[in-house]
Amino acid sequence: MIANTGLLEQLRATLRPYGAQLIAVSKTKSKEAILEVVATGQKAFGENYVQELLDKQALLPAEIEWHFIGHLQTNKVKYIAPFIHCIHSIDSQRLLVEIDKQAMKFGRIIPCLLQVHIAQEETKFGLSFDEARAILDDPKTTLLKHVRIIGCMGMASNTDSAEIVRKEFRELKSFLDAVSISHPDMVELSMGMSSDYKLALEEGSTMIRIGSSIFGERSYSPVP
Ligand SMILES: *Cc1c(COP(=O)(O)O)cnc(C)c1O
Asked: What is the pLDDT of residues 11-33, one digit of tens each?
């Protein structure tokens, strides 16, 4: 046994009352480990790197719903457009335009989330609240018929302070609630990882992205 499948059951039980979805983050993990998790009934998996995702997607069961959660370069969109279930990491309108163009070629509408920078650290990707709102309100965005912006993704600060993490999640939830008045498709909130998913659930998360708790610690990170 590679993956912690017992913990998966526990996680699902925790998520159930909140109606939140579990995304198993399988970056750097083997196909064998992923298959073990698939065998427990898990369908949604998250990956951060395009090449790694393509290698796995080609060999793993077609019923897996792949979520892209890492930084996505526009020149790589074409490779994942045929099958990607949801893209959590939209950080520019240019990226949306490219996804729309590629999705059109396959007759698809790809669900996307705007990645908003809510953490204190400078290194994480993402839009400011103002930038996210500007993208949503831009008439050019409305013209994109092959992407559907269904919510926001955010990563809280890497800190021991539950107070700071909670405040950051709460700000993202408030933002979603505010924009959903004029953008009713905006309903999903992708927030919470192994270290902070309980806080995220309490603050309104609808999609939890869990890696290390399910698969164990990652021993290496491939170059993106
Ligand atoms: C790796 C990753 C996760 C999972 O993190 P864990 O701490 O391993 O649960 C979630 N979201 C994103 C964007 C990630 O890159």
From this structure: 999 999 999 999 999 999 999 99
